[in-house]
Amino acid sequence: MPLHFLDIHTHVGCYGDLANVNSPWCKVTVETLTSYLESYEKASAVLLPVYSWNSGFIMPTEYVLDISRKYPDKLIPFCVVEVREACLSERIVRYVDMGCKGFGEHTSKIPVDHDCNLKLYRICGRLEIPILMHVAASNSDAYGILDAPDLKGFERIAKQYSNVNFIMHGPGWWRCMSEDFNLEDSYPKGLIERPGRTIYILENYENVYGDLSAFSGYNALNRDLTFAKLFLEKFNRKLLYGTDMEWFFNPENSHLKLLKELNLPIEVLDNILYKNAERLIRS
Asked: Residue ranges of the domains in the chain?
């Protein structure tokens, strides 16, 4: 197994007086997360808060900051604010001043070009912090940024806000690995014969990156391993290793195993595992 990585996407489901009792969140404790990181020689992770009007649970930025202060060599805090609430700029600035290195996981269920989101992009551009966005597959999803199935709305945003680094995640993003998919299928299977909009956007917008975490990212690779290897090699400076939930790193290590089994060149693997994330996260 690789010994050096920076996991771009982790969470804690229970901390202090806050316990998310529903599985799988109840399994993700600070101890579980740090045990995963400490089992490798040089491993760290971005710890993402969760809060929006649409998410079924919360883990506030204040708690993420508190946890990260206890493990400064292992955890890097991001912040999140519900973009439809007041004092958005003031709150994000305060969190950045307190040590947050990015914004996310952004899960507010509103269009990608909603005025509240446009305000967020301007703020993050000014502060020079990346945004990690969960893209929903459809309006019926419980949470996540909304866009057309072809991601044309996000493409306009990526072009308009070229000074903002977007880290893209979720089924609405990764199902577009292929041009061909059923609108009702959040996690399409089968070989990729015609590259889709995800490929096009990564190729044409320097400020867009792909977060390989969760089942959406894993499925995007595992559905066609031959295509996956070519994809990872071509976009090795645009892709970020991540896990998201407990079952991907303990005990399965699904993402790390898949990346190892593809026999990628060491430079490609290093970029995906940690170098790209290090470049994106402000020191």
From this structure: 4-280
Report the C-alpha gap between 6 and 59 in whole angstroms: 21
Distances (CA, A) of 181 to 62, 194, 196, 208: 40, 11, 9, 22
pTM, 2 dp: 0.96
58 alpha-carbon distance from chain centroid: 17
Among 159, 144, 150, which Cα is nearest to 111's?
144
Residue pair 2/273 in contact (Cβ under 8 Å)? The answer is yes
Q: Give, rounded to a whole angstrom, the gap between the first and last alpha carbons of the chain.
A: 27
Helix residue ranges per DSSP H, 128-224: 152-160, 171-174, 197-204, 214-222
- Report the distance separating Cα 267 and Cα 171, nearest Å: 28
What's the Cα-to-Cα distance from 35 to each of 40, 53, 100, 185, rounded to whole Å?
Answer: 9, 31, 22, 35
Place of tokens 């992009």: 121
Summarize pLDDT for 211-242 with one digit per residue, the tens. Answer: 999 999 999 999 999 999 999 999 999 999 99
Give the class (CATH, top level) of 4-280.
alpha beta
CA distance 77 to 129: 12
Query: How far is it, in rounded angstroms, from Cα 240 to Cα 5?
Result: 10
